[in-house]
Amino acid sequence: MSNSCDYCEQKMSNYCDTCDREVCGKHSAQYHEDGSCTFGKKDRSYELRAELTRQQKNGEFVDVVVEIEGREFPCHRAVLAVTPYFQTMFSSNLAESKAKVITLHDIDSGSFSKILDFVYTGEILIGEDDVQDILQAAHMLQAEDVLECCQKFIVKNLCPSNCVGVMCLADMYGLCSLKTTARSKAVSQFSEVGRCEEFLSLSTQQLLDLLEDKELRVENEDDVVLSMIRWLDHEPESRKTEVSRILPVICLSRVRVSVLEKLEVHPAIPKSPGCLAKITDAKEGHFSGSPKLMADTGREEDGRKPSCGISDELAIIVGGWKAVTQALYSENPTTPTPLQSIICMDIDRDQCYHVTDLPTPIVGCMSVASAGRYLYVTGGRALSFLHPDPGGSNIPSKQAFRYDFATDTWKRLPDIPRDRAGHQSAIVEGKLYLVGGDTAATLFNMFSIECFDIEAEAWIQPPKVPAIIPSPNLKVIACGGKVMLIQGLKKKRRFCVHALDVKTQRWTYASRHASARNLDADIRATTVDNKVHFFVERYVFADVYTYDVDKETPSIEEEKRNTEDVKEELHLVHGVCRRRKHYVKGQKSIINTISRKNYELLAGKDITYYHVNGHKRRTLPFALFGHRFLAAKKSHVGWYCRDQLEKVEEQELQDLLRYYDTSSDDDCDYD
């Protein structure tokens, strides 16, 4: 075997793919059946291109001159004809087909020079200062490869400040792919786009197209209104009548009152009585806690829909104690720190806000329920069970308060007839029901009930409670004009639902057989379309059950307690697996979940947000126990009546939560 190529004197570097001849990296050879051989030089096309470029620069063997803005560009017709523009020109019967000098108008000479370099060399230098001129010239000359290069450069440098201009530019030249990309940037980052100068140049129809896009995503609906105000002010005379077209596509039920008031006094609004009425209705809806928004669909009554990424979900956390660093059975435990306030978690931003301080030294084990913009906070304890209480002063409380979220005010209500802590509450048909909990007389009197008439602001005679077997995992929830008591009875291996119709004061009862492993865990529940869906979380899997409150069930007085006589009115929906898309069709709610591991049975800092498309896990800035949790709607509690609340910033948690391991949440041992 020789060490040199068969076709040149260079050192051999590889074999030909189709014969046994040894060739170098620059050559190729292919033998045929008739004995002939095709020889090739791999870089010949590059050499030819380089030679043509040299000739063009030196004016050798050129046969045409292109003149632009007084500059002359000697060229080869054959090379120019690779573009459809010149190919058509040279093959036509026009004078330019034979002319020695061709003059082009409406094109930048610098851009043509760069395109000409690309035609000869296959390379082009594009910068931010000339990309638009090159794009225009390439579009005119039908230089598709250059157009593609320009689009790639623009996409790479696309940002909120220029995406509107790019969208208009792409529309001008019919570049559909570029327009789609720029539009996607505009709708996905509309809050930033609305603060840029290019946004002000949009036409009314272009603005409407963006606002009506189903993928429009904003930080909050306030940004949409503030952007519209900036747009109106840019050309006040010509745009003052356009507000009547734009306002109907904005979801005013998600706009803060302070922003609505700013819009209300805008000069364009008085000229449109219909717009003024819509703004007034939205403000009144915020303060009344009854927005014109259909809770099930997320759409307003007139068909408007909130911008993508803006949900109405709010998690409210009341009181409790921050977790301690030592184990519960440490010899010298640190006293838990009381959280004597109400905080909210905005699910959209994964951010906690301080709402108000509690008006009482009672800190934890309270119950909270909501009706419109009011929160009802009842009972509770001043100290946790981990706090030394030698004087026995930590008895349950009789205190009851009403908090007005919209105006940030508290009102003391008449004391509860009996002191309570650790109870649950629900509001149905204007009545506040307190169920179960601890009292000073009896621990875990799970099914004693108190009833408060909200309109009369007085405690009234509670309904009679049937004899029900106590269980530690009682769940109370309101649905369809009924107070629902859900419990798991481990000995009977059944889930049971007791429902009180508050109008007829009639109890009904239903149950079904359940796996024993589910019956001693905490029950999570939510309501959708007059149905209660509930489950327990154990290990990785959970079973979801549903109860239809509209379905006729036997009254508890008429029901025989023998297991074989109980109707199976609870239906297993299906098994579910955490961290996968699951749960009840149409479900959209926030459910409190507490991580447990070993002795840390009381403390946790996770909130799980369940949705039909899966769920997201949100984390509080600190671990809590003894707190009360409420899933609420922003538009119902008066969230939009107040300007931005004070943020609860992330705290130093390494020492405080030394024992807490979020990565092992799915492996927690609930036993």
Strand content: 25-35%
What spatial order of strands do you see in the largest sheet?
32-8-11-12-33
User: What is the CATH class of the largest domain?
Assistant: Mainly Beta
Number of strands: 33
Mean pLDDT: 77
Summarize the amount of helix as a percent range: 10-25%
**How many separate domains make up the residues?**
4
For the record, the CATH architecture of the largest domain stands as: 6 Propeller
- Number of helices in the DSSP assignment: 16
| Helix/strand class | alpha+beta
Rounded to an integer in angstroms, the radius of gyration calculated over CA atoms is: 37 Å
Describe the largest sheet: 5 strands, antiparallel
Uncertain residue ranges: 12-22, 293-303, 554-605, 607-615, 651-671
Cα separation of the termini: 77 Å
Describe the structure.
The protein has 671 residues and is α+β, with helices and mostly antiparallel strands. It has four domains: 1-41, no CATH class; 43-131, Potassium Channel Kv1.1, Chain A, CATH 3.30.710; 158-310, Alpha Horseshoe (Serine Threonine Protein Phosphatase 5, Tetratricopeptide repeat); 313-667, 6 Propeller (Neuraminidase). The protein is 22% helix and 26% strand. It has 16 helices and 33 strands. Strands 32-8-11-12-33 form a five-stranded antiparallel beta sheet. A five-stranded antiparallel beta sheet has the order 10-9-31-30-29, with no helix packed on it. A hairpin with a 4-residue loop joins strand 19 and strand 20. Helix 5 packs antiparallel against helix 6 (144-156), helix 7 (163-173) runs antiparallel to helix 8 and helix 14 (257-264) runs antiparallel to helix 15.
